[in-house]
């Protein structure tokens, strides 16, 4: 069973004040979008609350955990280890905190890169993470409206925004980010 209060306390205990604030922003926005789109608001809130649980672990230790638990699937995972905190958090939650909701675990695991074939809750957390109330960049209001209108189209717009941002800042694009974009585009046509 999912207990919102337990997961909230866990996040408050593990995270810095600033990261916890972001976490509440994602939880509130994901819950609101879930209600609007006929998805389970409790699952959405729970996933939002714990999505960044491993974010403040040092990158070296994230890599160590990822090696130990076989969470490395691409060479890029080791080149950009900050993409590992989702899979590491999902592993923790499943194996150390007894969280057994597969949809919530998948949403946590894939919140940074997405994956081809994402389910509604995975799309919701990926997108709410980028567009929660504390995020501030030129296109954020357009993305919020787009997510409200249509979750799949809105998520596609969020992934596209990430791709453009990475290209502009000359950072390597992870294969999963490109695969996620291609998959959503195919599904929408
Ligand atoms: O943990 P958060 O900061 O709340 O957000 P997040 O888990 O979505 O992580 C965001 C970071 O991940 C951001 O700096 C962009 C980066 N990222 C997302 N997709 C890719 C990526 N970085 C690289 N190098 N390649 C990607 O495809
Ligand atoms: Fe994150
Ligand atoms: Fe994200
Ligand atoms: Fe986040």
Automatic annotation (TrEMBL):
Source organism, top-level taxon: Bacteria
A Pfam match: HD
Leading EC class: hydrolase
Domain HD/PDEase: 15-143
GO MF entry, a single one: bis(5'-nucleosyl)-tetraphosphatase (symmetrical) activity
Enzyme nomenclature, EC number: 3.6.1.41
Protein name (Swiss-Prot/TrEMBL): bis(5'-nucleosyl)-tetraphosphatase (symmetrical)
Organism of origin: Desulfosporosinus nitroreducens
This protein's encoding gene: yqeK
């Amino acid at each position: 069973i999912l207990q919102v209060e337990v997961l909230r306390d866990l996040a408050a205990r593990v995270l810095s004040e600033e990261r916890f604030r972001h976490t509440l922003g994602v939880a509130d926005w994901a819950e609101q979008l879930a209600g609007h789109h006929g998805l389970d608001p409790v699952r959405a809130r729970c996933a939002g609350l714990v999505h960044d649980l491993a974010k403040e672990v040092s990158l070296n230790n994230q890599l160590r955990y990822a090696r130990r638990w076989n969470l490395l699937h691409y060479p890029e995972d080791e080149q950009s280890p900050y993409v590992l905190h989702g899979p590491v958090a999902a592993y923790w939650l499943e194996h150390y905190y007894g969280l057994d909701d597969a949809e919530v675990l998948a949403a946590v695991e894939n919140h940074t890169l997405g994956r081809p074939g994402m389910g509604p809750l995975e799309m919701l957390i990926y997108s709410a993470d980028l567009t929660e109330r504390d995020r501030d960049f030129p296109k954020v209001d357009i993305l919020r409206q787009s997510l409200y209108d249509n979750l799949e189209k809105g998520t596609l717009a969020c992934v596209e925004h990430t791709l453009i941002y990475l290209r502009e800042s000359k950072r390597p694009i992870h294969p999963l980010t490109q695969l996620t974009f291609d998959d959503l585009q195919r599904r929408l046509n």
